[in-house]
Backbone:
């Protein structure tokens, strides 16, 4: 039986974890390394760090931060945000990241997936997809969900897999921030068409939401932010509940 994963997501700006609405009115939540260490102790299976710094200096700060994170935690972590070339990916992997996540750059230059996968291996490449349902069709977006493309979610996920992606991190823009549950049916459909793991993001509000996306939604992992950052759902409590309901998680 496949072990399901629980993954906190940390948005980072200038070394600090922040939360806001559409990257506006950001407020600091805590130190990125300290929070990572605590999540590791609390039983998180992996971590995702997303760099939302706007400046070049902010990007440099993030690379230095990745080095600190790699020395402070003992679970795998993925980094993303602002990666637009294989050299960008190289700097972060060399700094200690276990995987890199690409989104907008992959849409703009699909060959980037091939290039990174060929250089480092598919296991290092996570392709993140933000999509919304328009007239019954799931359409991919870029630039933090602000720009529509003509790409179909399922077609793009399949292409990403064929090009060498090791995982797909799909966020439903329609569910993100609602805390009303994930797009379970969409995840189930996506999982049935792919042979690589699918990470679910967008809509977590309760333990039941996470249980459903890992079972009915067939997702391999559930990613969330606020419910973990603000202590609404402790990871150990979540995992104990999932295990009791028959979900195979690492305790």
Residues:
């Amino acid at each position: 039986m496949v072990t399901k994963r629980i993954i906190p997501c940390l948005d980072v700006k200038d070394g600090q974890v922040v939360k806001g609405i559409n990257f506006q009115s950001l407020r600091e939540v805590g130190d990125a390394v300290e929070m990572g260490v605590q999540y590791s102790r609390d039983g998180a299976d992996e971590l995702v760090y997303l760099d939302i710094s706007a400046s070049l200096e902010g990007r440099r700060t993030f690379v230095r931060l990745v080095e600190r994170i790699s020395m402070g935690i003992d679970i795998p972590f993925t980094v993303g945000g602002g990666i637009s070339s294989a050299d960008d990916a190289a700097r972060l992997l060399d700094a200690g990241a276990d995987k890199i996540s690409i989104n907008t750059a992959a849409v703009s230059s699909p060959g980037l997936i091939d290039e990174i996968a060929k250089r480092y291996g598919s296991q290092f490449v996570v392709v993140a997809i933000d999509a919304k349902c328009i007239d019954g069709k799931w359409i991919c977006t870029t630039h933090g969900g602000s720009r529509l493309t003509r790409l179909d979610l399922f077609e793009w996920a399949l292409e990403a897999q064929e090009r060498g992606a090791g995982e797909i991190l799909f966020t439903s823009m329609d569910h993100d921030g609602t805390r009303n549950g994930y797009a379970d049916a969409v995840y189930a459909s996506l999982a049935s068409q792919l042979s690589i793991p699918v990470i679910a993001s967008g809509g977590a509000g309760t333990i039941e939401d996470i249980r459903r996306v890992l079972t009915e939604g067939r997702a391999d992992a559930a990613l969330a932010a606020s419910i973990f950052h603000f202590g609404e759902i402790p990871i150990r409590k979540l995992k104990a509940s999932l295990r009791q309901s028959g979900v195979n998680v690492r305790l």
